[in-house]
Structures are given as C-alpha cells and as structure tokens.
Amino acid sequence: MEKEKIFAQMNQAIIDGNEEEAVRLARQALELKLDPSEVIEKGYVPGIQKVGELWEKGEYFLPELITSSEAMKAALAILEPELKSREKSLGVKGKIVIGTVEGDIHDIGKNIVASMLQASGFEVYDLGADVKLEKFIDKAEEVGADIIGLSALLTTTMIGQKKFIDLLIQRQLRDRYLVIVGGAPVNSDWATKIGADGYAENAVAAVYLVQELLAKTKRR
Ligand code: B1M
Questions:
Q1: 10 Å Cβ neighbour count for 178?
Q2: Which residue from 106, 154, 201 has its CB within 8 A of the most atoms of ligand 1, so it is best to mutate?
Q3: What is the Å distance from ligand 1's center to 6 Cα?
C-alpha cells in the first residue's frame, strides 16, 4: 500500500480516537520499514493537530481530546523503540535534560522531541510533564548536562520557561547550561525575550538547533 494512503489512515485513526487502528497502522509501518520519524510527522502529528482545531471550533470536547491523545500515545509507543534503536550506531554527542514545565501535562510533542534527539545520538534525560523548575536544575547538575530543554503547550505555562531562566541566573548557573524552549504557543521572539539560547518549532528543528548550539560552544 502507498505511504500516503497509510499516512491518511493514521491521520483518521487519531481524529477518530481509534487506538486499535492507530496501533495496527504503526505496526504495519514498521513491517513496511517506513522511516519512523516520517511516520510520526506525516501520519500522526497532522491528526492530533486536526483534533486541536476541532476542539477550538467546539466540535470536539475533552473526552474526544483524551481518546485521541491516548490513540496517539499508543501509536508512538510502538514507533519510539525503533526510533531510539537508531542511536546505537552513533556516539553520544551531548547530554540533554528535557521536560514539560510545571502546571502543564502536555507531553506528546516533548516525547517526540526527546525520541528524535535520542535517535540522533544525544543522551537524553526525560523528566516527563508537569516538572518542577528546580528538578530540571537538580537533574542537569547530577548528570552534567550540556542543554536543558523546556516544553510548554499552554499560554499560561510559557511563563515557566522565563521563570526557569530567572532561577538559573539567581542560582548563578546561567552560564553553565544552554537553554532551549519549544511548544505550540512558543516562538523565537519569546525565546529571545526571555533570554533562552534557542527555539525550535518541531522535533527535527530541535535536533538541528542542539547540534548547532553544541558546535558553537565547542568552538569557543
Ligand atoms: Co490540551 N490544549 N489541554 N490537551 N491540547 C492545547 C494545547 C490547546 C491549544 C487546545 C486548543 O485550545 N486549541 C489549549 C491551550 C490553549 C492556550 O493555552 N492558549 C489546550 C488546553 C486549554 C488544555 C486544557 C486546559 C483543557 C482543559 O482541561 N480544559 C488541559 C490542560 C491541562 C494542563 O496541562 N494543566 C488540556 C489537556 C489536554 C489533554 C490531556 C486532553 C491532551 C494532552 C495529552 C498529552 O500530552 N499527554 C491535550 C491535547 C492532545 C491538546 C492538543 C489537541 C494537541 C497537543 C499535541 O499533542 N500536539 C492541543 C492543540 C494544539 O496544539 N493544536 C491542546 C501534537 C504535538 C506533536 O505537537 O505539542 O506542539 P506539540 O509539539 C511539537 C512542537 O511544538 C515542538 O515539537 C513538537 C513535535 O513536532 N515542541 C518542541 C514541543 N515541545 C518542544 C520542546 C523543544 C523544542 C520543540 O525544546 C525543548
């Protein structure tokens, strides 16, 4: 079956909140040896974005949002091991602590970013969602991280990214870590305004950003 047809079916499975179908298609993609990152970005992500639009229009309610995200997470759980297994051939390029800021339970996008980074050879410490700001620092100090990445999906939790940078300054640790931010309501203006080192619009851009930032630091 053509790739585009499978992607369209994946899209629909997420819109319908059909977990069984979403999982079946993810398994089929692996059997067909499709690129897992392309499957995620072209098959599943557009589906959950459409769900968000339907919710905004008042056509979907919280239960639909939840069933669709569960279908999305189940499909990603099938694809992520394959994505991560690609890291094996690559040496570790840098350490990253990542999570979604406190008060925010959205983790689908952050999980994709974490998996892509890992698949690209970075050592990733994923703290999950609704993470206390101090916890990012504690983990970064513990593992000797190079970069700390904060995801935020709510306009009300974006401020956590700013508070985090303020906290690093307060603890005299700002120079020790590169800080990158992302999430649907975040953009490069916001990143500049709060003094972050970088912003990435999606998971692929996050990998390039991290590579670029680390290359610059090493040249210093
Ligand atoms: Co919620 N939600 N949600 N939600 N949800 C949004 C974000 C919303 C935009 C929907 C809408 O109104 N259209 C809206 C926020 C409005 C706003 O703030 N202005 C919203 C709301 C309001 C809420 C609740 C408050 C609803 C309620 O309870 N009344 C509640 C929040 C609870 C809380 O956090 N305290 C809530 C709950 C939920 C669910 C639990 C049902 C579920 C989340 C499940 C989960 O994540 N485990 C959910 C979902 C699924 C969504 C939408 C539909 C989809 C989010 C998603 O997964 N997108 C979302 C609508 C939307 O975004 N259009 C919405 C797909 C994902 C691949 O994209 O996360 O953007 P994204 O990640 C991308 C990039 O942003 C980037 O790369 C990723 C991959 O390409 N990226 C980074 C992300 N993090 C990065 C970090 C980086 C770099 C790049 O570096 C560190």
A1: 21
A2: 106
A3: 24
Cβ of 97 below 6 Å from ligand 1: no
Which of 65, 120, 133, 153 maximizes ligand 1 atoms within 8 Å of its Cβ, making it the mutation to test the pocket?
A: 153
Distance CA(76)–CA(146), nearest Å, equals: 27
Domains of the chain: 3-90 (1.10.1240.10), 95-219 (3.40.50.280)
Model pLDDT for residues 94-133, shown as the tens digit of each residue? 999 999 999 999 999 999 899 888 877 899 999 999 999 9
Residues 6+ apart with CB under 8 A from 72: 14, 22, 44, 47, 48, 108
Q: Which residues pair with 47 in a beta bridge?
A: none
**Cβ–Cβ under 8 Å, residues 152 and 161:** yes
